[in-house]
Design the sequence.
């Protein structure tokens, strides 16, 4: 359920940030975001209260330092309002297009997370920190480099297509060359983005694909990278070698997925039968291939994390009441293997899950010391995880 909620929520965020105008996907952004966010909240809702050791995830320590031991939390709403006013002032005074662009949307979403941070109950501290960190990293990855580039070149209208020139067009061209597709990357008159020219196999007419920022997939990469970093910070108390390796592999694979997306788009045009259908096929691949690759990759990666990566913190602390909240684990707390509906399991009153056979061997919960619950026949009651 958490995996499905994550995919739905990230798809909604992605469509809000990089809205594909003129397609049916444009109208799915808000429904996916609302449904995914509600579904995620419901699936993570605490079901029991017990005592235990308070958790201290990386996110709590990071935000504690960022806010000077919490002293800046009081100013979060004021900072959020200031960010909104600064973005509006920038658009009106310095930008040639006062309309809200993609980067403005990212900034405003970050400001909204600051405005609402203190209104979220403490029992949802982890989810609250995840949202805040997600938008902080999204601004660091997608907005900050653009502002730095504009200041460096002393050009407030500097295009964000620099990413396409540096990290996408050359790599796409090299991979196509390895596949036997002759191509050339060059500047395009009237555009700041690079063009990639090739000749289709079935008709001798050169075709040029202009790789703008909207085509590059940088927003999908930013969403994935920000979500994964926020996930690691809110779920783990320390960064092990396995987590560092997973982080590097995840970001690298997300980047390669963007390159693969552009390669597939070009290959669709390269193998098109006629000149009349070439543009149509390219547009279809541009509109849908990226999202199919992105959602498939997110599903695979998050599925692997939620199933096979142990050590995630399942404890959250209420700072006001001292109550610790537990979310049921996906593994048996005794043998540490993944719980499955095929193997009978039981749940202790403290919230821990065990295989029935594991629980029968000891007769007591290793976490709280309670005896295993018995049914009328004297055997341990079972429950599906």
Sequence:
């Amino acid at each position: 359920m958490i995996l499905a909620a994550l995919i739905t929520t990230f798809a909604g965020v992605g469509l809000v940030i990089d809205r594909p105008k003129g397609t049916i996907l444009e109208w799915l952004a808000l429904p996916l975001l609302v449904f995914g966010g509600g579904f995620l909240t419901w699936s993570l809702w605490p079901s029991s209260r017990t005592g235990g050791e308070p958790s201290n995830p990386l996110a709590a320590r990071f935000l504690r330092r960022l806010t000077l031991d919490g002293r800046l939390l009081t100013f979060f709403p004021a900072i959020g309002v200031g960010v909104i006013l600064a973005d509006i002032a920038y658009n009106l005074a310095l930008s040639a297009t006062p309309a809200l662009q993609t980067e403005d949307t990212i900034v405003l979403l970050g400001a909204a997370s600051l405005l609402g941070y203190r209104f979220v109950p403490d029992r949802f501290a982890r989810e609250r920190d995840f949202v805040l960190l997600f938008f902080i990293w999204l601004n660091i990855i997608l907005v900050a480099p653009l502002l730095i580039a504009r200041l460096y070149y002393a050009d407030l209208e500097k295009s964000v297509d620099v990413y396409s020139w540096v990290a996408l067009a050359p790599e796409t061209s090299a991979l196509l060359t390895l596949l036997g597709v002759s191509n050339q990357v060059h500047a395009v008159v009237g555009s700041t983005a690079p063009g990639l020219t090739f000749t289709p196999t079935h008709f001798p007419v050169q075709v040029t694909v202009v790789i703008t920022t909207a085509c590059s997939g940088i927003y999908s990469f930013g969403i994935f990278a920000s979500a994964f970093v926020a996930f690691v910070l809110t779920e783990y108390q320390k960064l092990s070698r396995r987590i560092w390796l997973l982080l590097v592999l995840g970001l690298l694979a997300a980047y390669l997925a963007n390159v693969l997306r552009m390669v597939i788009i070009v290959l669709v045009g390269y193998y098109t039968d006629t000149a009349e259908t070439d543009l149509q096929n390219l547009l279809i691949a541009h509109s849908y291939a990226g999202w199919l690759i992105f959602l498939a990759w997110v599903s695979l990666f998050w599925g692997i994390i939620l199933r096979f990566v142990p050590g995630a913190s399942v404890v959250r602390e209420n700072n006001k009441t001292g109550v610790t909240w537990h979310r049921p684990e996906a593994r048996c707390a005794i043998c540490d293997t993944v719980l499955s509906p095929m193997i009978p399991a039981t749940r202790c009153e403290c919230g821990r899950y065990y295989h029935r056979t594991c629980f029968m061997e000891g007769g007591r919960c290793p976490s709280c010391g309670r005896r295993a619950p018995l049914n009328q026949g004297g055997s341990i009651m079972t429950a599906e995880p």
Q: What stands out?
A: Confidence is low (pLDDT under 50) at residues 47-54, 311-329, 375-385. Residues 275-308 form the longest helix (34 residues). The CA atoms of residues 146 and 160 lie 6 Å apart.
